[in-house]
Structures are given as structure tokens and as C-alpha cells.
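User: Fold this; C-alpha cells only.

Assistant: Input:
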Amino acid sequence: QNEPKMASVNVGSALWRVRLGPLDPSSSDVTAFVTTADKKRNFLDVWTFTTGIPLADPDRMEDDAGPNVQSKHVAQLPLPAGAPALAVLDELSVVLGDEEGSVLFASLESGSFDSRVLFKGTSACTSVAVGTPKGQTSIVAGFEDGSVLVRGLHHHTHKEETFRDVNQAAITAVEFAGSLVVAGTATGHIRTWDVRESRQPGVLLVDTGSAPAALSSLAVHPAQPTTLVSGSSAGIITAWDLRAPSAPTSVTHAHGADVWDVRFHADNGNVLFSCSEDGSLLQWTRDSRPEAHFSLAGVNPTCLAGTPLLDGPAVDGPRAPGVAIHSVDAAGTLAVCVAANGAIAALPLLA
């Protein structure tokens, strides 16, 4: 088996989030939007990676990724504060949430950014997501004070909705799942609200078999909005069916530290990626046979980078030491991840 090959560039600052823009069918380029985790340098960076080419050595997380790598820096937007929250609107526009509570819109035109504040919360914004729960583009933002704010991108078209975790725990991750807003908290709870019914306490997802651990990431299946996957600070990935919130469909001890990000492939819900503080990046590929509930039970991941949890699931692939990988996203034939050492790495996907 050939080891997966990786192309990487280094921006010199710790990175926190990466999200990929939608693919252009006429181009082989993947556009990556990246934010920093560096208190001294706050910015949004945009890179393009070209797919279907020979890439460099997977163990080289450094500036020179080799002569065969085709990558290009497109633009950079300096930010007044750290922006841990990032979601893509379209191939040129993103939504950001920053440590001062602002939710911003940024659009790339002719190689430079135009940005503006859309709305503000009452504490630091920790997560944002984009969806169409009422047939129009909406933004959901989670905040450290436990509040969750839903607002239309063109806010004059429909009213603002505010939900709140009943325990007032810090919100750590948010997603849209059809008409539902899903929020994970620092105390390990996941709660959902239906945006069509604003006066409601929400539904709590319950995992009675695991000790509570902070939720660090959420992902919704691209074709089945009732399927949710969560990653926790205990290194656990949990799969849920939102129609049956009383128990998860699978609980997997996947990593040896915080699962910083979980992400489905944009076009293939049978492929999931996870990355961790322990330096590992895993690809989980499920059988394509239809099942009543999405589950990772019995799925052995492939390690694309770093060292997986040795007493966890069986893992195929290289086991090289790595730095903390904070975020991952995948589209087309590439997965792109960002790391604590400033590396942006593009990996061809395994069949």
C-alpha cells in the first residue's frame, strides 16, 4: 500500500480553522479559507491547491513542499481580533466570528477583501455555521455565555431568533441540521432547537454511557441532516440520529486527546475526517450499503498524518509523529488540514 502524499505550506502562525469553498466544475483548484490561533497575528488567509498532481512527502510539515506541488496564496484579510469561528457562504464569501463577539461577512473580489460586521453577541463568538432552515440563507452563531443566535444573511427578510443552553454553558460548536439548530457545549451537552418553533427549551441529546467531556466539534451528514457526529475533549467521536436523541448510534475512542474537528466529505457522507491535539488526522470510510442509522462501529480508520491512539481502533497507514492538527475539510479529491505549527497541508484522498 502506498502512503498518502501531502503538500504543505507554512504561514508562520498557529492556525485554527480551515473550510473549503465549493468546487468549480471547470477547474481542478480547491480554495481553502484559513484562520489563525495566534494572539499576535489575526488574519483570514486564502489559498488554492490543485488536485490530481504528484504531491510531496507526508512527513514534511514545512515551507518547501517540493517542486511538484501546485499551491497559490490568493489573499489575506487582517482581523482586529482572533476569529475562531469560520463558515463558507460561497466560493468568494465567508462568515467569521471573533473573540469580541462580532459576526462578520467577508467577500473576496479582485484579489482583495471587503468585510463588514453583520451582528454582535454579548460575549466571544466561538462557532458559526451557514444553512437554509427556512428556505433562505441563515447564519447561526454560538457564544461563550451560552447563547445561540440565528439571523438571516439579509436580516430584513426574517426575524432574529435567540436560543440559550439551559445550563448557560459556553457554546463550543454549532451547526444547522435541516430546520434544526444544533449546539455543543463546554460541559459536554448537545442541544437542538427547531427554528420554526422559537418558544421551546430544545431537545437534549443524551449519552449515558460516557463521562461528560467538552464538545469541541460537530458535523452534519451532507445528505442526511438527521445524522450528526460530535468530537470531544476526551478523544471520542460519537454518532447520533437526531430522530432518536435518547442514545448515540456509536461511540468511538478515536484519538488520544481533544478531537478539534470532525468533517464529512462535502459530497460523500460515507467518508468522515477527524483531527486531534495528539497530532493525528484520520479518514473514516464506511461501507456504502444503506443502514438504518449512521454508525462508526467496526470502521477502521486510515491515518493520513500523525500518530493515532494506539489502544483505540485498528488503523491502517503511516505512524509518524506530528504536531497538533486543529482543523480539516475535504472536497473533490483533496483533504486540507491546518496545524498548530502554521502548516496548511493538502492530501489526496484514499480510495
